[in-house]
């Protein structure tokens, strides 16, 4: 039986794959195990290596935040050239937004006001 974390990851990957295909017209492939990304999205000659992240909900100083963790399972940051796009899936409302790798500026995580999260990236 899959772990709860593994199940959440699978749900997020499927949701992102559907969104990329349905809303943006990408064809979706899954890479071989041990690649540093979860999905391969292609459209015409464009290829994007997509890393899917599930948004975490946290309270800090009495305020609700959405937290995005941009590290791999071992706590390491992704290296330039290994991922093109991060897809953040919010399991509470099913919404997805996208952040290009370049927009991370080396950050390990980002705390975002839930009211402003969909002003980030949001489209491809």
Automatic annotation (TrEMBL):
Residues 5-105 form the PD(D/E)XK endonuclease domain. Transmembrane segments: none annotated. The keyword Hydrolase applies. InterPro entries: PD(D/E)XK_Endonuc, tRNA_endonuc-like_dom_sf. Pfam families: PDDEXK_5. Keywords: Endonuclease, Hydrolase, Nuclease, Plasmid. One of its GO terms (molecular function) is endonuclease activity. This is Group I intron-associated PD-(D/E)XK endonuclease. The lineage of its organism: Bacteria, Bacillati, Bacillota, Bacilli, Bacillales.
């Amino acid at each position: 039986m899959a772990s709860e974390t593994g199940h959440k990851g699978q749900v997020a990957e499927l949701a992102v794959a559907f969104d990329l295909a349905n809303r943006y017209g990408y064809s979706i492939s899954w890479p071989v195990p041990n690649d540093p990304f979860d999905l391969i999205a292609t459209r015409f000659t464009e290829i994007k290596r997509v890393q899917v992240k599930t948004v975490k909900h946290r309270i800090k100083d009495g305020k609700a935040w959405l937290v995005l963790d941009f590290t791999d399972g071992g706590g390491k940051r992704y290296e330039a050239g290994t991922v093109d796009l991060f897809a953040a899936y919010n399991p509470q409302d099913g919404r997805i937004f996208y952040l290009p790798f370049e927009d991370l500026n080396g950050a390990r995580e980002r705390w975002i006001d839930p009211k402003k999260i969909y002003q980030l990236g949001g489209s491809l």
